[in-house]
Amino acid sequence: MIVTVLLLQFTSVISLVRDILLILATIAGGIWAFYKFRKMRIPEARLQIEMRCEVFQSDKRALIDTVIDLRNTGNAAIWGKIPGNPECNLEVKKIPEKLTHEWISPTHKDLRSLLPAIEFLKPFESWYPEEPFLLEPGTTESLHAIFSTTEKGLIYLKCGFVDREDNLWTAEKIIQLK
Predict the structure, then answer these.
(1) How many domains does the chain divide into?
(2) What is the DSSP secondary-structure string of 31-81?
(3) Quick check: 114 and 92 in contact, CB under 8 A?
(4) pTM
(5) 108 and 168 share one domain
């Protein structure tokens, strides 16, 4: 009888410990899932834009080859808004020498556009005219925007990409032409 009572008490203690461990494991799993969701932001799109410029100069003009790397570092595909999206462009502006000791924003009144905005997705759209631009997670697409100018001095480049959810990503670069 004493053995039976001890066995029942021991089983109750084991059952209690099992229930407590189950509750703790459920709480730990919930915390882990919340942490992973907050960290990964599933299914958030993340785009990194990097610009590289190579300048070829002669006495009279400069040819600038701008490589625009679009890298999807998120967990969701990034779709371009529509074919022919004018919001995915490269702006080229001259920074006048008179701007000294001031903050220069992309919309500064003294920045003058050297040429109309370059729609860098145009070459892609000529290959797939009915489909919007698509960038899968973990992939990089490199696009070229080549232009020439006779301007000298500092040139401001701003690349913008707008997806179909109206998310805007930008990159900026300054180059010097001699």
Answers:
(1) 2
(2) HHHHHHHHHH-TT---EEEEEEEEEEE-SS-EEEEEEEEEEE-SSS-EEBS
(3) yes
(4) 0.70
(5) yes
93 and 29 fall within a common domain? no
CA 83/CA 126 separation, integer angstroms: 10
Contact criterion met (CB below 8 Å) for 77 and 86: no
Mean pLDDT, range 125-142, rounded to an integer: 78
Do 68 and 103 belong together in one domain?
yes
What's the longest Cα–Cα distance across the chain? 108
Q: Which domain holds residue 119?
A: 47-177
pLDDT grade for 147, boundaries at 50, 70 and 90: very high
SS3 (DSSP) at 170: strand
Both 125 and 54 in one domain: the answer is yes
